[in-house]
Amino acid sequence: MYQFIHISSYSSQASKKSSSTACVKSIVSEADRKPSYIHHMKEVDAPVILFGCSPTAAGDLAEAWGKQNKIRKDGHVLLAGVISVNAEFAHWDDYKRDCIEWLQDKYGDQLKSVVEHTDEGHPHMHFFVVPRDGERFDGLHEGEKARNEFRALKQRTTDQNFAYIAAMKTFQTNFHSAVSAGYGLAKNGPKRRRVSRSAYLAEKEAVNIVSAATLDKTSLIEQGRKERTGIIEQTKREAEQYRLDNNKLADAAIQKRMDEATAKNQQEAAKVKRQAEILGRQQGQKSFERQPWVKKFRAVIYGIIQLGNNQLERLRQQLITSRFQVDSRLAAAKREIAEMAAELASREKDVRHISDLYESVCKMNRDLNWEAKHRSSLTFSESANVPDHFKKPR
Question: What 3-state class would DSSP assign to 130?
Fold first, then answer.
């Protein structure tokens, strides 16, 4: 089995010098499986977006970049690539994840979209890259960059093509060593290569060894990912607990400092108040001493009157407080008297009930005593005449 990776550049409008009619719209529409661009397929499935936006959205970003940077309509604005493997490849899910990581490392935020097609024989994915604002497009395509550099040096067209081919071989080698070699995939497909039999057998043996080790590698990677996830979760829990503990300690320290500052401010305020009172008294005494005796006399009289008014105000407040307390106690006493009256009424009712029961018992007792005393006189027939003094008293 072998890898396949290919990249191409596309413009907003197909070049008239080229026989190809492919442009940004046709490429992204085919990748999005739009009906007008998939005549070669009978049954299609919707593409699976693995990263970023849809291909159509990536094409819109590329054309917007071209307009913003004043690129000609036949100038390249979109880099599109495809990655594929053999149909019998068993580790496609892990492989495509590693491919996306490689693309992200290589292109960064220039990578706009990666989609997977599941309606063809070979598993494959398409990726789309757009330059940043102000950048040159050939910075994305190694082959075009190398060819343009040779063209700037006025080298022959043959040398320019050789530079393009060498750069693209380097591109495929870098991808193979970073991703495909770990899955036992060969760099090149089944084409004629002039290599010795021993070199061919050695390469085949190496591919088989790597393929055999792929299962162990996959299991180790999965185990490592699980352990990494567990470590991350544990670290998050410990970090959260550490943060909560630090917050509690910080809150306690802040509260302590606030209490200390409040107490200190209260002490300072009391000290300032005392000093102000002393200074005020001193200033008042000095001002009083400088006044003539008439004003001093008036000040003394005013002070006595003010003192009397203050005492009257205190007495009034005390009277109001005492009156409120008396009213509260009187209301409480009335409530207690009402509760006691209700309790006495209930007890009187119980006493009357007990008295009635006692009268009933006494009457019953008298009846029983009379019957016991005159039982011998009551042996006659009920139809016999009984003297009146033998009858039961009513």
Answer: coil
